[in-house]
Amino acid sequence: MMRPGEESEAVNVDGRKTFENAKVAISRSHERGGNLCDPFLEVAPVSGAALSVLVGPGRSTVSSSNPVATRLDEIQFDLGEGPCWDAMNHRHPVLRPDVTSDDEWPLFIANLRSDPIASQVSGIYAFPLYVGSLDIGAVDLYAETPRELAKTEVSRVAKLAELASWQVLRQILGDDGSTTDLSPLSRREVHQATGMVLAQLNITANDAMLLLRAHAFSSNRSVMDVANDVVERRLDFSPRTGERGEPL
């Protein structure tokens, strides 16, 4: 029989173990082909999740746990407003325990209430996806009944969103870091830019190259052009100040 306090400690240990497993699952999803949504559902008491790219020509839902989560993203795509947009634009979690009583996004709320698929959504919790200075999109979690997320849950989801940002880049761009389509001179400049990005963010060379390609993709430019901007110091990937602060 557990003594007083032992049961809650066991729950905390299990929660930390689940969180660590979720981080590993996201970090290795590109190797194992895992669903990016599943780890979020493990650490937060929600009904569904979706990850979306909101910048560049590749705007889309890249991973979704169910049709409701997909539809929730589609409504926000179509209207250009909603929690996911605010989460990305402000780089803060947007937490609404009961979004149907909110008047912050009138078009979004009206469409949500009348939609035959997404009308069951009540709580919405959106977290930004970004790497350095590059905005990518958002993670949308939803609950079918009004509920607050605990501070620990918000912190853990935010960490998973940080890890998932890299996996979304890999999913939409591939992960080979290839520069074989460039001339030898161009490759030297790209490698120089890769080294500068590596130093700015303290990441690996492969991830720095991935980030250059992601920026080129989102801005509809060539990798060479982006690399030139980095080398000439017109573009800096260092994180902006005040990121991942208090939820909105």
Total helical elements: 10
CATH topology heading of one domain: Beta-Lactamase
Assembly form of the protein: single chain
**H-E string:** HHHEEHHEHEEHHHH
Low-confidence stretches: 176-180
Q: Total strand count, please?
A: 5
Strand content: 5-15%
Give the end-to-end Cα distance, rounded to a whole number of Å. 43 Å
| Helical residue percent band | 40-55%
- Give the averaged pLDDT, no decimals: 86
| Main sheet record | 5 strands, antiparallel
Topology:
Elements: H1 6-27, H2 29-32, H3 38-43, E1 48-53, E2 60-64, H4 67-79, H5 83-90, E3 94-96, H6 106-114, E4 123-131, E5 134-143, H7 151-173, H8 184-201, H9 205-219, H10 223-231
Antiparallel strand pairs: 1-2, 1-5, 3-4, 4-5
Helix pairs in contact: 1-7, 4-6, 7-9, 8-9, 8-10, 9-10
How is this structure best described in words?
This protein has 248 residues and is of the alpha+beta class. It has a domain at 7-173: GAF domain (Beta-Lactamase), CATH 3.30.450. It has ten helices and five strands, in the order αααββααβαββαααα. The protein has a five-stranded antiparallel sheet. Helix 4 (67-79) packs antiparallel against helix 6, helix 7 (151-173) crosses helix 9 (205-219) and helix 9 packs across helix 10 (223-231). The longest helix has 23 residues, at 151-173. It is globular, with a radius of gyration of 20 Å. The relative contact order is 0.14. Residues 176-180 have low confidence and may be disordered.
